[in-house]
Amino acid sequence: MRILLAILATFATLILGFSSAWAQTPPVPIGNELCQTCHVAYEGHKVNRYHSDCLACHTPQDKHLAEGGRGTVSLPAASNCLSCHQNNDHKRMNWEFSPHAKAKLDCRNCHGVHSPKIKELNVGMWKSDRNSQMCMSCHKDVAARLTMPSHHPVKEGGLSCVSCHDPHSGKQTTLAGKNEQCTKCHQNVRGPKVFEHAPAAEDCTICHNPHGSPNRRLLQLAQPMLCLQCHSITRNNHGNPPRGSQLRGCTNCHSAVHGSHSDPLLKY
Amino acid sequence: MKLKASLVLTLPALTLLAASLQAAEPAAAPAPPATQAPADAAPTEAPAVETTAAEAPPEDAAAWDIVLTPRLFLFDYFDGVGEDRTQFLERYDYRESISGDDTRSGWYPDLDLDITGNNGDRDFFVLERRGFGEHNHRGLAKYGNDRLNVYGTYSKYRSATGGIDYLYRPSEPALLDYGGTTGGVGGGGQGQGGGFVNNFTDNSGTSLYSIDRTTYGAGIKLKPSILGGWATASVDYSGYQRDGNKFAPFLLEGGGGGGTGQTRWRGINLAVDERMNRIGLTLSASPQKRFELAYEVSYEEFKNSAPELQMEPVTGTTNPSPLASLFYVADTSLVTHGIRFSKRFDDRWLVSAGYGMSWLDQDSFSAYETASGHNEGKISTDNAYLTLNGRVSPEVTLEGYIKHYNHDNDSSFGDGLINTGTLVAPRINSIDSMDYGVSADWQTDFMKSGFTAGWRHLDRERDLTYGSIASAQSLYREDTVSDEVYFKWSARPAQGWTAELKPSYLWSDKTGLVVEPEEAFLLKTKASYASPSGWVASGFYDYKNRKNDNNTFTDGDGSISQNQSLEGTLHSAGLSMNYMPRDYLNLYGNLYWMQDDVSSYLFSSSVQRWNPAVAFTLIDEPNYKIDSYVFNFGGDWDASEKLNLSASYTYTRSKGDVASGTVYDQLVAATGTIDSIIDNTLHSFAVGGDYLLSEKSTIKLNYIYDRYNDDAYDLLSGGVHTLALGLAYTMQ
Questions:
Q1: Is the dihedral of CA B440, B444, B450, B451 positive or negative?
Q2: What does pTM read for this prediction?
């Protein structure tokens, strides 16, 4: 705790001490009347003051000025946006290492600068949120999993893709382990437990597929196959051969499968 | 009534928030300068256009856009189970009629809200509420100016998946291998009657299970304009409340611990009552834009208020102890903090580094733990990473990273509770992981291609305490060491075309868990085409094969070792099309297929693995193979200036055997198709329309038909009709 306080105090001193030294200078406004002779505002078109200068983000070629048309004016690359949006921003400071950046995506692929990219929710996803619909417009495999018999209720509006995923960063630059991501919401299973179950302590995705599964409880495989990968079955407890009434659900007896405070065999 | 209470509480609270934020608005400032400059003076890159708060216009000139959409929902669950059980489609879509609390059919109102204030600079205030009934609604309010952002959120969502679990309880359905009863009697050991599973006693007293999760959040962010232009600071609060109940089966100890065999295996209605509160501080800075620095610290408290269930009062037994708790959930607190840094050198090199720690403490202990001397539960983690990205030429970029993760379990070992005599699974004292890799990316004009080649290495060491079961009788191991090489080609071979190919190969000398691959081959492929006429088509095919023969079971006398042999293959493929023949018409379709095929050996052991006489027998190699299909198509049509129509249909199918051979035969003998196969289909059809009644009002109508058919377990089949009628009224 003392380390924490020391770091906080240092940071606060730095901020207060230099707060006026590096103040920004006012912007130099650049006109866009010429653009607006052709590009008229449309319904839902909104202009943030910082985005009101067309030429700050677009560079038209002579052909565009003479004839107009697509392909003759540059669209902003991620680096253009980040020249403003990366500074003082802990969420975007590692954009370059994110999977989205490595897939050569630009900010405008997801963000509509002039109006929202997703104006109306698809009727099949009417309870969902715009962010999730945006994600699913590319991540079709995930969208499909989210309709499987067991899934996180994204389409139902229970949570959003961005509840778990940070689209501006990646695994290489995160300070959270896989399980810490899950236990931000599922604290009841995180322990510490007296008797642990190794996969629950190591990686939730060993047993669960968070997007969706044909099996109950988001399980990667149905029981008992999921459990039999790691466990043998004791004959004197489970029959020889093991009986279906027990094989149908290992967790019908070993139900404290995320760990127990009382029972080493995780039965309660 | 509950809905009314929710609305009554929510709306004034949000209104008050809006009013208070407006009251806190900074003093009026002059309008921004006119934007006049010759086009040829424009920069080719976006400059850092930043304006101080002094230039903000007065907000009394704000334009308000207010849309109120009261909605009426009508629903009817049909063909499924009655109100005394949970319908399959109810699991993520719980409804309750305002008249008589009917959960099968009825009606309820709700209200969507959209309030936006724009001052010419930005949407400085946004309030949004989405309501789908008492058990599914959410809201957001946010305010921003040049100096700060403030936000508040809430949501409530009820899940009834526990009700489906209940339908699979040990006594449901009547077990065929017990002669059609809900559990056999007698038997014992290895014989007819299922050994230890003599008879299941359902003490739950209810068949309805659901859990409400109510979340809330708030935060404030101070912008650079009040922190010297180079720093931001934010404080964020989030929390949730989780209430409800779940079905909890358990098996009592032997040796008379469970009383007679009739009452050893039971199920109870377990209360869920949890709260979480987290507060965090984030400081970000870029001094003179020379580097980026961020520091985050958070404190979180998790509290379980459900009563502790102790062995003797619940079960009438004192074995292993009258104090032993059933499903104890401890209170915990978590402190995390991390510092991250990134710096760009010469616009060619980028370095990023971070370090974080967390401390998780157990704040409450069960009576059993306390009596056993277990009085400290503590897990700490350390994380660090360093990444470097460099553009060595206009075409070539190199990247390297190293990442370290450490997990330490510093909890106490309570004598008599977790001594090695009772420890039948390894205790994880620590996990130490080092992951590093390099890659090179080459961009070339050849088909506008990018080539990436890379290698990464993982070295994970575990410190484990093996108790009664020696490591040779467990598949869990201390080390994982793996290497992976990968290659990626992405290209735009022709106008409108993109293509991507990414194979990778992984091999491991040591695998700590048998589910980690000893060898894995992964192939990802993707292609898309966008035609000038408005067609967009894309497709992908992914293949993953993993195998592991590394980990072995050895008999107690050391005489025989047998490998667990695991192999899994996952195919997935998809095709998507979008066609926009006119500005007013958009059509789309998606097809997805996935096949998951996994096999592993089924071993039995002669006695418990802690017995030195244990011997393992390979019984069979069961195979899990499930195919899943999702087909979706629909369209949006602006039929006229006043009328928009949209429709969507989704077909989801899962089919296959969850096991083969002995396991399959035994499952069939116990419950027929219910647990041995997966065979279900979900049809979901939605159609909706908006009609502009007047300049300010729009009528909205949605109809949704969902139908679920389960050919493995017919009890789950059923459907639901939903009709949502809304009237959006706009005020400006």
A1: negative
A2: 0.89
